[in-house]
Amino acid sequence: MTISPIENGIVLDHITAGKGMELYKALGLAELDCLVAVINNAYSIKMPGGRKDIIKIDAEIELNLDIIGYFDPGITVNVIKNGVNTKLPKIDPPKEIKNLIKCKNPRCITSVEQELPHIFKLTDSENKVYRCIYCESKAK
Amino acid sequence: MRNLIDILDLTTSEIDELVAVANDIIESPQKYAHKCAGKKLATLFFEPSTRTRLSFEAAMYELGGNVLGFSEAQSSSSAKGESVADTVKVVGYYADIIAMRHPKEGAPLVASMNAGIPVINAGDGGHNHPTQTLTDLLTINREKGRFDNLTVGFCGDLKFGRTVHSLIGALSRYKNVKFVLISPKELTLPEYIIKEVIEKNNIEFVETTNLEEVMGQLDILYMTRVQRERFFNEQDYIRLKDSYILTPEKLENAKEDMCILHPLPRVNEIAVAVDNDKRAKYFEQAKNGKYIRMALILKLLEVE
Hints:
By secondary structure, chain A is mostly beta strands. Chain A has helices at residues 20-26, 65-71, and strands at 9-16, 36-43, 51-57, 76-81, 84-87, 96-98, 119-124, 129-132. Chain B is of the alpha/beta class and 304 residues long. Chain B starts with 11 loop residues before the first helix and ends with a helix.
């Protein structure tokens, strides 16, 4: 199977195999009107199991890097301009994420006040633990 | 503007300051009798409470201030579906400081983001109750004169007890503190508190199911209630409930100067006969609650 190279756009590489569609949805890529390819189970020397997912976006768009950092800091972001590839520095997990995930604690104030933003803070960067700022429940 | 949502919002030196002010209030209450004249405390209690609400109100009256508020959600506009944010925005126009109790975890934090005046968390569900922890700390200070070099036993329901979790967090910042965690296996301290608080601060701790075995080691015994509804089956509850009831007999091996604390209300986890023991400090502890709240109100209102 061949997917043609991009002249101007973004390639998200080294996505854990099977997680490509999840990231596609989290980044809201379905709303784009440009060409987007999600490649599942591509061959990889680097990735465990020898498989990875790749997302190719055929347009210069602004990506929310916090989402990628939260999703998996190991993902490589390549920005391509006029056929020249620039690899972005490694993305650290964001210190805070807003409205990306929801608090599932039924005792949390967010469970009854729907308009509150769901905000999680990184409380343990080593183990990538995020906790709800309101009830301190661990993100699942 | 400062709020108190979590006990860890206060540094150890701020806790020392509050304890010093509370001790001074106990010594010379007349000095503080008019400190908050013209100021109003709003007690927003979305669920019932006896000690906490009354001690906040008594604290404000003894500082010469006034109190307004409600003591249950049914008598507030939340019964009509108003959000916490909207309620406190309005209260912020009428009062100078808020003490809030709410059944939902994080509600006081939401209030602090919207009120425009200082907010004190007076208990949010099973989450935080920082003024209870301040009360515990003032009592420990008055009884022991220190927060370091203490062996503190926590007994009963360590899984759901928010007062236990907060006090462990607060005491973990002091040197040479040792925790003895006494509970049935069903109600042990949550793993995340052991990992993220106790082990992270290199605090020595032991877990045991036997209160009498460790009694002799303790400088402080913090009792909580083992509640029937926490058990999956009735037989386990019946088998275990008496093990965690403090009686004069169980105190035989305790140190002479050990201090027995309990956040109250007590149901049956401390026998009434223990009340006469000089080591029983739980009613003293409830009294201290008013003084530390006075010190806290002064601090958050920035009254000299």
